Amino acid sequence: MLEDFFLGNEAVWEIGEPDPVLVEEISDKLKLPTILAKVLVKRGLTDPGEIRSFLKPSVKGLHNPMLLPDMEKAVNRILAAKELNEKIIIYGDYDVDGITATSILYLFLKSIGLIVSYYIPDRVDEGYGISEAATRYLSENSFDLMITVDCGISAKDRIEQIIESLAMQGRKMDIIITDHHQPDIHNLPDALALINPHLPNSVYPFNKLCGAGVAFKLVQALCNSLNLGDEYFNYIDLACLGTVADIVELTGENRVIVQIGLRKIQKCPNPGIQALLNVVEMKNVNIDTYKLAFILAPRINAAGRMGDASRAVMLFTSSDISYNDTLARQLHSDNNLRQKIQTEIFQKAVEIIESDLKFRNQKVIVVSGDKWHQGVIGIVASMLVEHYYKPCFVISVFDDEAVCSARSIDGFNIYEGMEYCSELLIKYGGHEKAGGLTIKKSNIERFRERINEYADRVLKVTDMQPKLEIDADLQIEEINIHSVSLLMAMAPFGEGNPKPLFRLKEINILEKKLIGSDQSHLRLILGTDESSVQAVAFRMGYMEQLLERNSKIDVVFEISINEYMGRRNTELIVKHIRMPEKSIIRNRILLEASENVEYLDNNTDWIYNRINNQLVNYSDVVLSRHELGVLYRYFQSAGRCTFTRSQLFELAQKIDDSRVRMNYFKVLSGILILKELDIIRYSYQDNGSYIIEVAEIARKASLKNSKLYSFLQNLQQTAEN
Predict the structure, then answer these.
(1) Quick check: 420 and 386 in contact, CB under 8 A?
(2) Taking 70 as the threshold, does the pLDDT of residue 598 lie above it?
């Protein structure tokens, strides 16, 4: 991470360059600050009407539910079930989206007098969709109507089995599928109604709804048919929770659902949501999408990861405060256990990866362990992707068979990768970014080879570096309480509408201070005496030693409003800090030169071209006697030391001042020269670090005896002539 400060190699910063003419036009026409106009233009929002709807979502943004495919058929069949006093079963899923979708439909159907129950499959034993165990259960019990939520569109074979099994018994059960996943139009299930905005016959204006969103639209349609007015809004907080947790785009109708849902959660939430808020001590705090996604959702998911997911449905469908409190505490406890288990597995996986050099050279990580908890290996795969930025397959081995969860990066399609290895797999499924498979233990090593064979075909070196999408560069004068307050109108933030990310270029450091009980955070004041802003860099206290007052840096950040004792101030939430772009380019050249320093005399054109292009100066690559002496005295006082590459950059920065011009190239060249003169000893380690110690010498060494020193001096003399 320190190396990124000097070389900028941790991620590619992709800086947005919104059209300045459009920015000015939107800013003037809609009376918006340029900081907001830049983000809107960068994200393709340039029509004034669209911008107004985006910044002020309202109930009018909810579409007519009857536009969804087969909605009328579904509504009529459910109302018929009400008239006939029939038994309905809701078939859901074990994640937050499926749980909230099940809860929405169950609560509403119960409220209008229907006989209704639900079935949530076991995450580990049954997996996603309609399982074999569920097929038996549905065939053996008497239900007149089944409604799926958040699943079913890919269950053609299972539904055929259920229908055939019931027919053999002389019975029948109608099926309504509500789903939001992409359908295979050639393998659609034979159901009474298929409600899915992705179906080819759909005229619905918005196709980004999650499972809970589709269930919410079904309830809206039923309320309209029963003349119940806006009673469906009683369930919008659950739809909001499912939408945020399922990471669907927070644009269009989802934006309306989430914004109104957040308001309901703040004022009068579902009793189960309230119980969760109480147990995590968020009773009287502002609830936003971050808190839903990273505090509530993991506890709801823990129900299925660590046990029976139906407990979460019980939580959201009960009004008993005491009972809800007990369930919420169970889920909270399950989540703590889940975190402990996943941390242990993650650490074991990292140990395996770091101890085996083959992982370093392979583009895809395939790591396995005995009886790793199946409920958390998907999370561990995500953590490994974040840690290594490589596609990751995490395998849990049970006897002769193993199950796996996989997560990916941009440029590598998990499903297509598994398809390439299909002859080695018992079964597999998923999509571009995530998937799962079952495999024989004996095939794991062969699978590792095959999936990396596939990766070598499709993954370029540039794909292996994360991309950081930055909305725009800002001037510090654009950042003020008024402009930032208006920027917050872009909330709620989430998938498809992330928090705006900005860069300040070559901004001056006025003040720096370590903060936090463990001094692990960093507070900065950036700008000038006339115009400055406060910034906080969480978990970046280690960078304090690199930052000098009145030096310049590039900073990537989000903006927030800090409220304290009735005062509101803008505050930058720092995400990345680097040296200015020009300095990074110069450092990369000096690094490249240092890696070839012993061979420069074979290709002097290389360094001349970079000097002539003004990328570096001769003074950057020529060591003076004085500079070499300063470097020697540093090593002499330090004793035997080990330096990583980033620490050598740090050393160069530490020595560099008005009297001594030092950089990475000079440090490494100096080490080579001092070694050449037998003044120091050094060894290069496999992990890329250097071990340096000063030799005991009885007499002074002459610099004339160093070929490298002489070559660098001649390089300057040749240029001057």
Answers:
(1) no
(2) no
